[in-house]
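Handout, section B. The chain below has 124 residues.
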Amino acid sequence: MKFQPDPSSAHSISGYGPGWVAVGPEKIHHSIVLGPDGLRQPWACERFEDLTPAHFARLAEIDAEMVLFGSGPRIRFVPPAWLAPLMQRRMGLETMDTAAACRTYNFLLGEGRRVAVALLLQSP
């Protein structure tokens, strides 16, 4: 009987702070999406006010069971209608501040879950 999940090719978050996250040794200062199978791509938004329904439609294209949305230094929710593409694919979305999203992503990744994280990183 095996008790350890198979190794994942997903990127874990090695550090975070106001306006940045670290993936391995690299510090990133722009919004980013990380996910299963090594997914790592910029997320084209600099502020919460820049978000549109298209940002969440793009997240629905990721092959993951759930998406964590790090909404910046505080929890901010997008209009529920924007989440329709995720719901149609039966993907969960959890909104939390960016620091909590980083911690939760690493935890779920460690459990072997197919999780993605969309982090809104704003300059302090």
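Note. The chain has one domain: 29-119. Compare this with the example in section A.
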